[in-house]
Amino acid sequence: MAIGSNLTNADAVANFALETKYEDLPEDVLNAARFCLVDWFGVALGAANEDAVKAIKRTVLAWNAKGHAPILLAGESTPSAAALVNGTMAHCLDFDDTHVGSIAHLTGPTWASAFAVGSHLGSSPRDIITAFTIGFEVGGRLGSGGLGVAVNERHIHSTGVFGCIGAAVAASVLYGLDAEKLKIAIGLAATQVAGLTGSFGTTAKPFHAGKAAFNGVLAAEMAREGYHGASNLIETEGGLARALVQDRAVSPQKLDFSDGWEIKRNTFKPYASCLLTHPSIDAGRDLHTRLQSREVKRVTVHVDPLCIQLAGITNPKTPFEGKFSLAFCTALALEGYIPTQREFTSQTLENPRIQSLVSRVDLVPDATIDKTAATVEVAFSNGEKDLCHVPLARGNPGRPMSWEDMKRKFSSLVQPVLAEGNEDIFDRFKAFDHLADLTEIRHKMAGNQIN
């Protein structure tokens, strides 16, 4: 595979995308990809009854666009339309996986793109999972090396950046674009990147993932039809980083696809909140077992400064704001809750005991603490103190969820949504690349009953 250091980033991506075949993917990489897509279907289907999902479905279905890409539980449409809805659904609960290297939810838009385009074209499950893995690798590598962190620190949501480019690459592979058109598709995706972190705590945040998927599919389709654009935007001195990181503190790294697999460095969420809250939740859950009815006077949460910037809502008023509140998530854990989706409700927000504890939480930025770590200290009214340091939150590669963990998560999300008779859907998603074709899955995900 021609991936030498003398290649431009665009050429390296094109070579990697065009030369990587299903047979080239190691089994542990395929297993990681399966984990991603099972998680994606779980969190996306679990969001089916959310008001934001209903609204975006009404919007898109009014277009009356014709195609064979499933809009989850709402019929079929064009690939771009389906990717927009499904990508939004996948991020709507903020329960989807996160690639920590880029601080981005890459599976949300990338699988939305691959599944929509592959379904529309009738591609084989193996081709779809291969295209997804390639797109994930591109987005993950481009956002690593500090670029994803820098983008978020400058108030731009990295999912709308690197997820968009990953989605474009996945769609380009399935559409069979040649190297030159694929590079144009990357450029057309890069010029559309978007998403403001100021939207965190609102349902505009999952729209970033949906729009990234839409933009990626659109970029590939435009390039396929001969539309032109800049092909050098993702270079180390290219226009993408010059626009997003204008002080030049960080630039895209030289892309080299010979150094392992980013998809194996992905993180999955056991809790339905911003990933940056998870170490504090782990610490709070541990401390809960040691409270022994002592009255809590103050709670001090030590975390990386970016955690406070992105999840520092101190007095959440809505369940979605609660997902971006370190104080609320820590309080839930200290009170003995496991913050799954059903804990983020108006009832828990209005619980006087939890509200009182939230008001006693102080957030302390500490740049010496990793983003995947936290220290929570509890001071009691009797003068005693207790402390828990979590060096690595559960769900990270060094402390991974198991397939059994994933099945419990999937079932809790999907069972309330899908009709009876879908007990084996988890197993079919888990074996996605071994399915003979996509016919049954495509119809079922569109909400059609199969005899």
Write the layout of secondary structure elements.
Elements: H1 9-19, H2 27-46, H3 51-61, E1 69-70, E2 76-77, H4 79-92, E3 98-99, H5 107-121, H6 125-143, H7 147-153, H8 159-175, H9 179-190, H10 204-224, H11 239-244, E4 266-267, H12 278-288, E5 296-303, H13 305-311, H14 319-322, H15 326-334, H16 346-349, H17 352-358, E6 361-365, E7 374-380, E8 385-390, H18 403-414, H19 425-430, H20 439-445
Helix pairs in contact: 1-9, 2-4, 2-6, 2-18, 3-4, 4-5, 4-10, 5-6, 5-8, 5-10, 6-8, 8-9, 8-10, 9-10, 12-15, 15-17
Strand order, main sheet: write it out.
6-5-7-8
Number of domains: 2
Cα-based radius of gyration, to the nearest Å: 21 Å
Dominant shape: globular
- The CATH C-level class name of the largest domain: Mainly Alpha
CATH superfamily of the largest domain: 2-methylcitrate dehydratase PrpD
Portion of residues in helices? 40-55%
CATH architecture annotation of the largest domain:
Orthogonal Bundle
Spans of at least 5 consecutive residues with low confidence = none
